DNA polymerase IV
Amino acid sequence: MPTVIAHLDIDAFYASVELLRRPELRGRPVIVSGDGPRAVVTTASYEARKFGVGSAMPTRRALRLCPDAVLIPPDFGAYRAASEVVMRLVRGTVDEVEVMGLDEAYLDLGGLLSPRAAMRRLVTEIRAATGLDASVGIGPNKLIAKVASDAEKPRGFVVLTREQACARFAGHPPRLVPGIGGKTAERLEVLGITTLAALAAADPGLLAEHFGPRQGPWLVARGRFEGEESLQAVREAVSESRESTFDVDIAGPAELDAQLQRLADQLCRGLQKHDRTGRTIAIKVRLDDWTTVTRARTIAHPTNAVEHVGQIAAELLREYAPPRPVRLLGVRVASFGGVEEPPAQTAQLALPV
Ligand code: TTP
Ligand code: MG
């Protein structure tokens, strides 16, 4: 049986969820963002993207580019609820699923007679159940599925063999490929490698000299659209966290939870980018009197899904119930690399703060 993997990603996820309950805003540029001085855009509707607005852009700048945009504050509870419906339908389609975030998942379609029809049906089901549009990529590995799902957004449906992916993206910059970031792209450029075709044709030995024996050949393989063919990735041993000090101390549980979910989302994106997962989820809370507390929980299976990390972080925060206003919040995922630890224990770790 050949490997067939699909990547499904909801279009303009947060903005689309907001538009479902504000249909009068349809067709207008919409930006989902907080409104503090350092707020950044979480997502922009496709109408706002035409003005050059994009995720992670400072909101002030986004409003300069698109002064008529409607600014909507994020409501992570609503996104989580929508995500749960989507992921239930995803899991109803195939057994093997790797959830990568609130709005994206890989599906192993290897056992299906008609993978395309199954994915068309799933998109229709998601649309009927939630009103959300999704883009789908299908290919022989995760890399091709991911790039294909991005290629014709919104409402994309792209099926590619490896050869077709190589031909279609030959002239694109190496950065198109997940895992090749700005710094790597700059270093490739110094070597005269500015397209995926050039990367695919590069000498792995030469790249090994510049990027090391592992990363060099890996880069060439990425250029050739070779990638993981199973949904269980090899995990590295590291730990990652995100924390944020607020402009004004926060006392309200709803706002604290929103901030926590924002951090969990950022953290999970970072973990997913590097294909890392962990089993220990921890929060850090610093009160206005500088009391600093951490709480952690270790779960049975490694995760980097924001639906897990966000939920456990929220539970830990609810259990701690900060007795005073909070000046700093942090979220950490630790114990990577399948390190064996006793499962499902709630521990109050004395983590360094
Ligand atoms: P994406 O799937 O990357 O983006 P998107 O769904 O908004 O748009 P599209 O897939 O059509 O290109 O991310 C999913 C959600 O995650 C997004 O709606 C908001 C959130 N997000 C952030 O909060 N910060 C970010 O930097 C990014 C990229 C996304
Ligand atoms: Mg999306």
Q: What stands out?
A: Residues 292 and 333 are 18 Å apart (CA to CA).
